[in-house]
Specification:
Shape: elongated
Radius of gyration: 28 Å
CATH superfamily of one domain: Outer membrane lipoprotein wza domain like
CATH class of one domain: Alpha Beta
Structural class: alpha+beta
Helix content: 25-40%
Amino acid sequence: MKSDKKALMVEGLPKLLLLLGLCVFIAACNSSGNTYQMSPVMVQEYSSEPYKIGVGDQIRVDVWGNEKLSLDVPVRPDGMISMSLIGDVLAAGNTTESLSEAIAKELLVYIKSPQVTVIVTNPSSSDFQSRIRVTGAVNSPQSVPYRKGMTVLDLVLMAGGVNQFAIPSEAKLYRRVSSEIKVYDINLDDILKYGKLETNYMLVPSDIVTVPERSF
């Protein structure tokens, strides 16, 4: 019996050594200075806010059990929509949830426990809300629609790169985080000339990248 246990221990030894070796390899990879990781601060500080209705958006208002009050309507230039019974209601600047609550509150005078749902069917005002921009000493300043996965490098290349008067090492990223504007340093020299991507941040809607110009 003892010899059988000893044999099992010997047979299991290579597997144990293999597992230990694998753990060491993974730890080494994670600690390698050559492994590039995007700055976690940039990801953590961005939180998506609820969409706010804007002028020109097409919205659907459904009042449960009352088709005559339900409607599909664009938000007027003054930010309002018009509904039967309650007249004008301010839509622009509201989320779908807050607008639903505002309409339901107004309808309480006429309907018992109204249930209102608002859906944005065509968010045409979102184009400028979700754009990203690059300005300053680039060959072609740009304001472009945001696309998931875009980075600082993508945006600068779309602008034709930096011009001859640029100070690439002093570029900045301006980002709105809640109600605050935060500024992050970008070293475009490192990105464009040396392939160092530590400041090649992932972009989010409304980001602005600026490249300063030398003063003569």
